[in-house]
Amino acid sequence: MLSNLVSNVPAVMLLKSLVARFANPHTAWLTLAMASTLAGNLTITGSVANIIVVERARKEAAITFFDYFRIGLPVTALTLLLGWFWLSWIR
To answer: Is the pLDDT score of 82 beyond 90?
Structure first.
């Protein structure tokens, strides 16, 4: 959720001090990297790249927050689920 409130890079910067406190910091870093990157697909504001693409597309098609979210929600949920399975499998 934090990735979509402040974007993924600031979210990682805010959470990086917590990673060292986890029992397995390596897995925590992998989880944070995966989650912040994939969760950035949820909304337009989740990633600077999303904002750039929507702004560039404005001349061709207006993409609203809810247009983007309607696609972003299932894509984000599916990729986070697949990522969670993958990270669980490699441990």
So the answer is: yes
Q: What's the rounded Cα separation, in Å, for the pair 40 and 63? A: 17
Both tokens of 49, joined, read: 């790249």
Q: Structure tokens of 76?
A: 């984000």
79 has a pLDDT exceeding 80: yes
Confidence (pTM)? 0.78
Cα 29 from Cα 13, distance rounded (Å): 12
Token pair of 67 as six digits = 């247009």
Residue 28 one-letter amino acid: A
Q: How many CA atoms lie within 13 A of 74 on its CB side?
A: 3
Domain positions in the chain are 2-90
Q: Where are the alpha helices (DSSP H) in the chain?
A: 2-6, 8-19, 25-39, 48-57, 65-90
Distance of alpha carbon 34 from alpha carbon 84, whole angstroms: 9
Place of tokens 């990673």: 19
